[in-house]
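Reply to thread "Modeling small-molecule complexes from scratch"

Following up on the discussion above, here's a worked example others can learn from. I took a protein sequence and the SMILES for MTE and predicted the complex. Inputs first:
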Amino acid sequence: MTDDDEKPRRPTGPLRLAASALAGVAGGFAAIAVAELVSAAVRPQAGPVVAVGGAAIDRTPAAVKDWAVRNFGTADKLVLQLGILAVLALFSMALGMAVLRFRRTGAACVLVFGAVGALAAATRPDTGGFTDTLPSLVGAGTGAVLLYVLAGRLQRRHPATPATAGEPEADWDRRGFVVLASAAALASTGAGALGRSLNGASGHGAVASRDRLVLPAPTSPAAPVPRGAGLRIPGVVPFITPNSDFYRVDTALVVPKVDAGAWRLRVHGKGVTRPRTLSFDDLLRRELVERDITLTCVSNEVGGPYVGNARWIGVRLADLLAECGVRPPSRGGPADQLVARSVDAMTIGSPVEDVMDGRDALLAVGMNGEPLPFEHGFPVRMVVPGLYGFVSACKWIRDIELTTFDAYDPYWVRRGWARRAPVRTESRIDTPKPFARPKAGTVMVAGVAWAQHRGIDKVEVRVDDGPWQEARLAAEDTADTWRQWSFPWGATKGGHTLTVRATDRTGRTQTGKRARTIPDGAGGWHSVVVTVE
Ligand SMILES: Nc1nc2c(c(=O)[nH]1)N[C@H]1C(S)=C(S)[C@@H](COP(=O)(O)O)O[C@H]1N2
Ligand SMILES: [Mo]
């Protein structure tokens, strides 16, 4: 359909073509900006970029997601959203150029993008329902109208106005276009910025509930970290990872802000003879324990950074489950899988046997002396020593269902990861860094090793193809924490490869067999190449 036939056809000047592309971008920008503003009135998760991004994350093949986590780390989310915006910008330009010929149809196409955003928002697993479609719909409507109006300024005048004062006047309303486009860009910027700041300030009830929170002293405090557990060797990570440096891996494009006062945890399912719903105060009234536990992500490559050690405060999950009537399979319980659900609809499945075998599986409320940071699961998350995060560490938890591994596959399992995933014994060289150029003489090689809930008994270092030599182990905090190690190396000039391996308390030594992170964790030895000068 040609809305506005140009008779006779004249070639489109480059300026008019550029202006039309600009009109498209202005329409797209207005749509996104208005959507952002409307999402502040609905909920931040309802915005089209977040909704489409979330849908993309859920549909991304495990290998690609794992690649993204490994290469962009926590910035993977930013990269994804910038990618979506870049794609939108390209389509907007194309639509802008299309309105030169197809004014109504081109502008109406903006609505198709709105529909995609609305559909994504309405079908997110944590969707707020119909209202979640409003940001996309209102935004797209605004963008479509703007594009249509801007296209009007690009229309050819019939006949072309004669040139005045020697300057050939354009055959379209340049001045009108510039004024309108600038005004729209300004208004969009204002709407977008307002929406952003309102979204940023959203959840103030949750923020206030966290600010107000004073965690009771634990009835079972952790023993002080033994002296010497943290080597003060430059380049080696601190023994306790500060919250601000703690790795973050999750699928949430907008960090959920949950008001502790309104938070509830439901415990139900197979073999739960006394189902319960607990409030945050119910949790705080229970016995609180404090434990040092090292958390690891299954996407951590050999030598990678997705491992951190914190001092957690929480309630013992096994006690709570027992009160609800849950028995582990070894004592005849019918459920072998505990599925934790979060407010953002993540599902994480852990073996009931592991959670109830006496280890310090926690419903954690505190991390390193403060309430959980929002990024790490405020108000409550799970932490289970010895299991990778994707099978244990549900953040923003709201529901615990007892079921079986046969009956239910949680989020990551549906995407190709293992049903059961105990943490592999691992070791990492923190110093020297790869391609460092240390001076000949004694060079301190040092790092960390972990085999949560088994403990580290030995770390060995190999120089080039030489023999394995035992490293010095730093003091052990607990079997649930990582352990630092050091090895004074008599470095000789030239290029060298340093390799490390650990042995856990079950006597198993890390093998050099490489394994990818999918499905149950990377395997192989970490090595670092240096040039001694
Ligand atoms: N709600 C929710 N909980 C989650 C995840 C998630 O995507 N959503 N990711 C899990 C994974 S894969 C890991 S490794 C840990 C990471 O916890 P952290 O971000 O506090 O380090 O959280 C786990 N809990
Ligand atoms: Mo993870």
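What I'd highlight from this example: The pocket of MTE (ligand 1) is lined by residues 246-251, 295, 297, 342, 344, 346, 376, 389-390, 393-396 (CB under 6 Å). The two ends are 73 Å apart (CA to CA). Questions welcome below.
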